[in-house]
Amino acid sequence: MQGYIINITRVKDEDLIVVILTHDSIKTLYRFYGARHSTIHLGYKIDFESLASLKSTIPQLRSVLHLGTPWNIHRERMLAWQAFIRLFYLHLKDIALIDTFYFDLLESCADIWHKQNPKRIAIEAYSKLLRFEGRLHDDLICFNCEEPIKEDLTLIRAFLPAHKHCAWNQTFERLHVKTLFEEHSTIAFDDEEVESLWKIMLEGF
Ligand SMILES: [Zn+2]
What percent of the chain stands above pLDDT 70? Predict the structure, then answer.
């Protein structure tokens, strides 16, 4: 089985509880300490086996093989990936079975993560996720006063649109936000705006 490690919790000295996002599920597995285990990190894509265990109530993580990509060793890209993938954990941790959309989305991001500003890739993917979940407010109606936003558009958590005077956040060009929401592209935003969008996204899916 293959999946992405979306959370690691250390328990009892060196044992780990590892949460993995697979093709169609979120798996919580236990890894007992062992010197011969391969090193695992948050964000790694791994091939693994899940084994029912007598020693713990949750299944054991076994036969781990890291399916590495070249950008795994690039610190900045890896840190951005870990911040991004952690959002999936916070968003999906209480769900056992998931749509293949999430795994496929991570796959498509991982494929191009080394090719451009990863924060752009993440923001574009996030807009697709919001679309998939029916939470993308592309009508650009203010979440606060429920009036259409003609100018001074700002975005808050979950990319909810608002008037600047309703939410007091940084403003974005209305047309640029429309491009992001409709075409899932950040091309209209400069790097500074991408940084702002990234920070809004990190507040949580
Ligand atoms: Zn408003």
Answer: 100
